[in-house]
Design a protein that fits this description.
Length: about 400
C-alpha cells in the first residue's frame, strides 16, 4: 500500500488552551485568515475541514465557515503534546517522537555563543537579533555588503539563521559556516535547526534565493521513519522533510524550492511511487506568508494546494491513503510574525477510508501510530480502528 502524508506548514485551526503561555491568545490561522480574505478551499472543506471541532462559526463581517453535510474524509483536531510550537518539534511528534525537553529558543545569542560560532566558522557576524528574514536583509544588507560579515538572527522558534549575499559569501562557503555553527549549537546550547539563508541584491533591493538549507540535529529517539526503514518500508521525502530528520529512515529525497515544485513532485509520485510512505512538507504558507504577516499571500498558497488536491486524489490507487495535517500555526493576521500555538487539522481520504468525525485527539503522534498500523499491522491506533477497520468490515 501507499500513504501520502502532506504537512501544510503552519496551517493552524485555533489556539490551544495554553496558547497564552506562548503569547498566542487569539491566534487562529485558518479562521482569522478566512475572516480577512474569505479564502475558499472547496477540496479541503469537502474532506471535512470545516466539520472539525471548533472550526465552523460565523464572523462579525458576515462571513461564515460552514460544515458540509457528508464529508468525504475522516477528520480530527490535533493538540500538540510537546510544549513547543516549532517546526522540528511538530514534525518529530508527527513521526512519533514527543520531546520531553523542547529545543532552546533564544531572544539573542549570548556573546560566548557568538564568539564560539565565529571562531568555528572563521568569520564575524552582524545582527544577532530576533527578526523577520526578509526585513533584516533589507535593513542590514548594505552593511553586509560593506563588511562582508554574514547576518546572524533568530526568531521565536528554535533556530539560528545565517544570511549572506552570494556575491559576497559564495553558497558553499555559507553552507560551511552553517555546518560549523551546527557543531557549536549542541548540548545545552542546542537549537532545532541552523538555517542557511542566501540572498542576492539588485541595487538597494535584497531578495532571498531558493537555496536555503537546514541543518538539524539528529532526532534524539526513534521515529516512525526509522521503524519503517528497519522493516523494509520505503520512505520518500519531499521538501524539507529530509533536512528535518537528517535523512534518517529516508530512502529517497526530493528537494524543492517552493510549493509549486513540491506539488509537482507529489503529482509525479502519485503516478510513479511504489509501496511505502511519501512524506511531504509544503513550506510557502509559513516561510513566505505566515512569518511576513501576508494574509493574501497565505490565502493564495492555500488555494494553490487546494486546487492540486483533486488531481492527487484522482491518482490514488484503491489501497492508497492521503493524509493532510500541519505542524503548528503561524497566523498572518496577528501582530506577531512568529509561529502560534494552535490545534492543527487532520484529514484522511482514500478508497479504504471510512468518513468519520474523530473529534479532538491529544498528540500529533497519533499519525505515527496510524502509519505503524497501516504498514506493520500494529493495531494500537484509534484512528485505524475507526476509519480503516470499520471500512474493511463494511
Amino acid at each position: 500500500m501507499r500513504v501520502f502524508l502532506i504537512v501544510i506548514d503552519s496551517f493552524g485551526i485555533g489556539e490551544l488552551p495554553d496558547a497564552a503561555l506562548f503569547g498566542d491568545r487569539g491566534s487562529d490561522t485558518y479562521g482569522n485568515l478566512y475572516a480577512k480574505t474569505g479564502v475558499d478551499l472547496p477540496t479541503l472543506v469537502s474532506l471535512g475541514l470545516n466539520n472539525i471541532e471548533g472550526v465552523a462559526r460565523a464572523f462579525g463581517n458576515g462571513r461564515k465557515l460552514s460544515p458540509v453535510v457528508s464529508p468525504l474524509g475522516a477528520y480530527a483536531r490535533l493538540a500538540e503534546k510537546t510544549f513547543a510550537k516549532d517546526t522540528t518539534a511538530g514534525h518529530y511528534e508527527i513521526a512519533g517522537l514527543v520531546l520531553e525537553h523542547p529545543f532552546r529558543i533564544y531572544k539573542t545569542f549570548p556573546q560566548d555563543v557568538v564568539a564560539d560560532v565565529e571562531r568555528a566558522a572563521g568569520c564575524r557576524f552582524i545582527g544577532n537579533e530576533i527578526a523577520s528574514g526578509t526585513e533584516i536583509i533589507q535593513r542590514l544588507g548594505k552593511e553586509h555588503l560593506r563588511t562582508g560579515c554574514p547576518i546572524l538572527y533568530t526568531s521565536q522558534d528554535s533556530v539560528m539563521q545565517i544570511a549572506a549575499d552570494t556575491s559576497i559569501v559564495p553558497l558553499e562557503r555559507l553552507y560551511a559556516i552553517c555546518r560549523a555553527a551546527r557543531n557549536v549549537m549542541t548540548g545545552e546550547r542546542a537549537v532545532g535547526r541552523v538555517i542557511a539563508r542566501p540572498f542576492v541584491h539588485d541595487g538597494d533591493k535584497f531578495t532571498r534565493t531558493e537555496d536555503r538549507r537546514d541543518y538539524a540535529l539528529e532526532p534524539p529517539g526513534e521515529t516512525v521513519l526509522d521503524c519503517l526503514h528497519a522493516h523494509g518500508v520505503r520512505v520518500t521525502a519531499v521538501g524539507k522533510i529530509d533536512d528535518i530528520f537528517c535523512g534518517r529512515g529516508i530512502a529517497q529525497s526530493v528537494h524543492t524550492g517552493n510549493n509549486t515544485e513540491g506539488l509537482s513532485a507529489l503529482k509525479e509520485l502519485i503516478d510513479t511511487a511504489g509501496d511505502g510512505l511519501v512524506f511531504a512538507n509544503l513550506v510557502d504558507t509559513d516561510m513566505l506568508y505566515g512569518h511576513r504577516n501576508n494574509a493574501p499571500g497565505y490565502a493564495r498558497a492555500l488555494k494553490e494546494i487546494d486546487g492540486v488536491l483533486p488531481e492527487l486524489m484522482s491518482g490514488l490507487r484503491k489501497d492508497d491513503i492521503l493524509i493532510i495535517t500541519a505542524d503548528h500555526g503561524c497566523d498572518p493576521t496577528t501582530p506577531s510574525t512568529d509561529h502560534s500555538r494552535e490545534y492543527v487539522p487532520l484529514l484522511l481520504c482514500g478508497g479504504k477510508v471510512c468518513p468519520a468525525d474523530l473529534g479532538t485527539i491529544k498528540g500529533f503522534d497519533c499519525i505515527a501510530d496510524f502509519l505503524r498500523a497501516c504498514f506493520l499491522g500494529e493495531r494500537n491506533s484509534v484512528i485505524y480502528e475507526k476509519v480503516i477497520a470499520e471500512s474493511e468490515e463494511i
